[in-house]
Each structure stands twice: as C-alpha cells, then as structure tokens.
C-alpha cells in the first residue's frame, strides 16, 4: 500500500522544485527585463544624441543663412555704390571729353585763323 507520509514528502519536494523553477524563471525574466531596460536606455541616449546633433546642425545652418544674407546684402550695397560711382566717373569723363573737344576746336580755330 501507499505510504501517505512518503507521498506527502514527494509532493512537498515536487512543490519545492516547482517553486524553484518558478523563481528561476522569474530571475531570467528579471534579467531579460534589465537587459531590455539597459538597451532602451542606450537607444534613448543615442536618439537624444542624434537629436542634439541635428539641433546643433540646424542652428549652424540658420547662423550660416543669416551670415549669407548679411554678406549678400553688403555685396548688393557695394555694387549699388560702385554703380553710382561709375555713373559719376562716366559723367565726369563725358564732361572732361567735352572740355577737351571744345579746347581742341578752339585751338584748331586759332591756329587756322593765324592767331597762334
């Protein structure tokens, strides 16, 4: 016949093994969760690093854009100034050329008339 004491001891031992397996599974799950958490933290840190680099790049592009606008504005201002100066020089040259032509005509007239 069965000995209930041995059966109870066997049942208790099996329950201890089941709880041991359960705790082992829980430790493995906990370890896997800890590894997943670490991986997630690393991914978040990497993502934040990429976002920071993007923001820095965007800031650099905006600063470069402002510098280029400033340089282009300055260039356009200088071109306008140079065009104005060129117009003044051309007007002055035309006036000078007119004076030289008038002088040359007068001189030729004086020479032809015998006054010189």
Q: Any overview of this molecule?
A:
The chain is an all-alpha fold and 116 residues long. 95% of the residues lie in helices and 0% in strands. It is built from one helix and no strands. It has one helix at residues 4-113. The radius of gyration is 49 Å and the shape is rod-shaped.
Entry keywords:
single chain; about 120 residues; mainly alpha; 1 helix; about 95% helix
Q: For the report, how would you describe the main beta sheet? A: none
Please report the total strand number as a whole number. Answer: 0
| Content of β-strand | under 5%
The topology string of helices and strands comes to H
Structural class label? mainly alpha
Mean pLDDT rating: 93
Helix content: over 70%
| Overall radius of gyration | 49 Å
Poorly predicted runs of 5 or more residues: none
Number of helices: 1
N-end to C-end Cα span: 163 Å
Shape: rod-shaped
Summarize the structure.
The protein has 116 residues and is mostly helical. It has 1 helix and no strands.
């Amino acid at each position: 016949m069965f000995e209930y004491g041995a059966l109870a001891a066997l049942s208790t031992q099996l329950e201890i093994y089941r709880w041991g397996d359960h705790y082992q599974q829980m430790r493995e799950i906990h370890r896997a969760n800890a590894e997943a958490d670490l991986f997630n933290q690393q991914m978040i840190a990497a993502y934040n690093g990429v976002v920071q680099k993007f923001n820095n790049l965007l800031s650099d592009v905006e600063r470069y854009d402002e510098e280029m606008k400033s340089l282009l504005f300055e260039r356009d201002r200088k071109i306008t100034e140079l065009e104005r100066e060129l117009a003044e020089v051309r007007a002055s040259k035309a006036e000078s050329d007119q004076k030289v032509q008038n002088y040359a005509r007068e001189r030729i007239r004086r020479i032809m008339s015998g006054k010189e």
